[in-house]
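User: Here's a chain of 228 residues. Predict its fold as tokens.
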Amino acid sequence: MDANLASVLKVEGRKSPEREIFTDEQVTLILNQKDTPTGQMVIALLACGVRIYELLHFKHEDFHRTESGAYLIGGCKTEAGRNRIIPILDFGIPVFEHAYATSVKNGPLFPNGKGGFWNEKNWRNRKFYPFLEEIGIQPNPYNENGKRKPEFTGKLATYTPYTTRHTYASLCDRAGVNKDILKRAVGHTPKSKTLDEVYLHPKATQMIEAFDKANQLVNDEVLTTTKA
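Assistant: Prediction complete.
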């Protein structure tokens, strides 16, 4: 999983730096944490490639389930990113179904302990980084109060919540998902005018089917680390 996804997740107006992605073994470690609240949210991020801010602000009614799969409608930041169809890879569907079943109408899909929306910084520093340390991926640079530890001052964490977004894009690209369709799912404008016209208002089933290759790759290659 060493594909450079700058062409998919580029920042308009400047070149995107190459980012680390989770290895297959690390993805497997994360997927094995499906029974923990933070593990569920990290799995959700891996399954749909959204920005952390987007996941924390999805509402109960943004999740949709069909016979062919599941998807979200929403997003933020750019015109291409807002109100888009976001297919959910199969391994994340049970997490979203559970979130939908336990959340309330007009409320956050993944509520904090008080039933409200998470603060992004609090979730990242108090949940995400401790979670990665607990499962052995990287040391936690923050203390129990969410403050940066002195020994990590000036140092960047190798893996951040954004790593899930790049890992999702890498898995899809590695599986051969059409890049223009993938760009639309992650909230970037496709370069192809033909595909832009075809998928301007795509049906959810079309988008879901476009990601079948990624589901197959996860089953055939990524999850084999647990089957060996």
